[in-house]
Amino acid sequence: MTIAIGDALPAATLVRMTDTGPEKVETQDFFAGRRIALFSVPGAFTPTCSAKHLPGFIDKADALKAKGIDEVVGTAVNDAFVMGAWGKSAGADGKVTLLADGNGDFVKALGLDFDGSGFGMGTRGKRFAMVVNDGKVEKLFVEAPGEFRVSSADYLLAEL
């Protein structure tokens, strides 16, 4: 079943890269008591994700925060080392927090996974954006396959 507006985020363990190495992040704790703009990409360093998706959220992070967002967070089915390198290469530090969903457990629990094995990618997360308010989905925008519109920073900002 796919997550819907009003649903609580599922309990899952994500991982963020820190200066001292990977650090586990429990979704129930991380999203509690805050309003977070969360976006997902099929993979770090992939073309649309690197050229448009992450850069858009980096560019619009301050504008999103001005609309009541406490933190901007991106996730992908990649390991924390890849997500950390991607964030550094894109200049995300201080703007967008990147959380690794290495085994895809989080996107599977959301019902927003897809089979990318035809492209040699295995299980991946669909491209989406949502606003999570105190652990519950306030807004949700899931892209059609191959699209990049409703999960963009510009679209999410216009919906706030």
Query: Into which percentage range does the β-strand content fall?
Result: 25-35%
Q: Please identify which CATH superfamily we are dealing with.
A: Glutaredoxin
Q: Name the average pLDDT.
A: 94
Please state the second-level CATH architecture: 3-Layer(aba) Sandwich
CATH class: Alpha Beta
Computed Rg = 14 Å
Amino- and carboxy-terminal Cα gap: 26 Å
Number of domains: 1
Overall shape? globular
pLDDT < 50 runs, ≥5 residues: none
Could you tell me the number of beta strands? 9
Topology order in helix (H) and strand (E) letters: EEHEHEHEHEEEEH
CATH topology: Glutaredoxin
For the biggest sheet, the summary is: 5 strands, mixed
- Give the helix/strand class: alpha/beta
> Helical content, roughly?
25-40%
Q: From the structure provided, what is the oligomeric state, counting identical versus distinct chains?
A: single chain
Sheet with most strands: strand arrangement: 5-4-3-8-9
Number of H- or I-type helical stretches: 5
Features:
single chain; globular; 160 residues; 30% helix; Glutaredoxin; 5-stranded mixed beta sheet; alpha/beta
Question: What's the arrangement of secondary structure elements?
Answer:
Elements: E1 13-18, E2 21-26, H1 27-30, E3 35-40, H2 47-66, E4 71-76, H3 80-90, E5 97-100, H4 105-110, E6 113-115, E7 123-125, E8 128-133, E9 136-142, H5 153-159
Parallel strand pairs: 3-4, 4-5
Antiparallel strand pairs: 1-2, 3-8, 6-7, 8-9
Helix pairs in contact: 2-5
